[in-house]
Design brief:
It is built from 15 helices and 15 strands. By secondary structure, it is α+β, with helices and mostly antiparallel strands. The chain has a four-stranded mixed beta sheet. A hairpin with a 2-residue loop joins strand 2 and strand 3. It starts with 7 loop residues before the first helix and ends in an 11-residue tail after the last helix.
């Protein structure tokens, strides 16, 4: 999800100064009660929020300007919904789960509940879903709460634990790899997870922490690693460097020394128009050609090579994907290769 800044010069035209300042400091959202408290009459408010009016409802009781709302992609709109969720909650509430992940820019895989998630610190009402907000209760220590863009939220390691508990291993591992890649402490992640093993779904949290690897650079690499380990390939080296004779090298996503086989993940973004390190625009056809040259050099070193794409890692695709990959491994490394038992 992309971040955005509220610029008074082009977002607040016509908004009274008292509400305009609040709108800016709250990241582009305000509550009905706040507008009324700053001089808008109920009749004015109803007029401004009519269909195609100047203000748009973000969630129950909270609003933004139509100009800002229509300028945002779905990721930006979810950030507004999460901000709005805190406006209608008590002060001792923080963003958590998928909502804190969005603000921390941690990738969300397998999350489609359409909810904002908040955690109430200390005693309060029981777990519930209300007006598109999932309320969690927790004895969360304040040391695991941080502030980002003016909001209180669970820190990255707590967010990983919450995602693992709520959405499962795959969702948790995708977020955990990203958190470590961005600098979170693996030692701290393991220590916290070990302390949660007696909690509901604690073993899943521990498994995620144990398997997390910050060398993964995107969700497809994380899910590809799950696929390969489930195939029994347990000696994977991540971001493995292969030096070429005469100079140059390639860094590949995975390498199995026992199989002498390279595995690369291929997402669509890799082949989209982009700029190189010199700022030159590179077309998809150029990218494909360079990737083919790179693959030929890797194969020229005697390594086998297979590619993993998104359909290979989706739920229900394991049998098909593993059959294809094992067939490629057998075909490319047939001479004298010792394959794992049962492959």
């Amino acid at each position: 999800a992309a971040r955005f800044e509220v610029a008074p010069s082009d977002r607040l035209v016509g908004m009274r100064s008292g509400l305009a300042g609040l709108f800016a400091t709250q990241g582009g959202v305000f509550a009905r009660r706040q507008a009324i408290a700053r001089g808008y009459t109920p009749r004015e408010f109803d007029s401004l929020t009519r269909p195609r009016g100047e203000w748009v409802r973000v969630r129950y009781g909270t609003y933004t300007t139509r100009d800002l709302w229509e300028s945002l992609d779905e990721g930006g709109r979810w950030l507004l919904r999460d901000r709005a969720a805190l406006l209608v909650c008590n002060d001792n509430t923080v963003l958590s789960h998928s909502s804190s992940a969005r603000l921390l820019l941690l990738p969300l895989y397998g999350v489609a509940d359409g909810l904002s998630h908040v955690t109430r610190l200390g005693p309060g009402q029981s777990f519930r879903v209300q007006s598109g907000i999932m309320h969690h209760l927790s004895d969360l220590d304040l040391s695991r709460v941080m502030r980002r863009d003016g909001l209180l939220l669970a820190d990255p390691i707590q967010t990983v634990a919450d995602l693992s508990r709520e959405f499962g291993y795959r969702t948790g591992l995708v977020a955990a790899d990203a958190a470590l890649h961005e600098g979170a402490s693996h030692q701290e992640m393991l220590a916290r997870a070990a302390a949660m093993t007696t909690q509901p779904r604690g073993p899943i949290i521990l498994a995620v922490a144990q398997d997390a690897d910050g060398r993964a650079e995107n969700p497809l690499e994380t899910l590809g690693r799950i696929l390969l380990t489930n195939m029994g390939i347990a000696d994977l080296e991540l971001q493995w460097r292969i030096d070429f004779p005469g100079g140059g090298y390639a860094v590949v996503d995975f390498y199995s020394p026992a199989l002498d086989h390279v595995f690369e993940t291929d997402g669509r973004v890799k082949y989209q128009e982009q700029f190189d390190s010199r700022g030159r625009l590179v077309t998809p056809s150029e990218i494909v050609w360079k990737e083919k040259q790179r693959e030929d050099k890797v194969r020229g070193q005697g390594h086998g090579m297979s590619r993993i794409v998104w359909p290979d890692v989706e739920p229900g695709s394991f049998q098909r994907a593993s059959r294809r990959l094992w067939a490629e491994i057998h075909a490319q490394r047939a001479r004298g290769l010792r394959l794992p038992r049962g492959a």
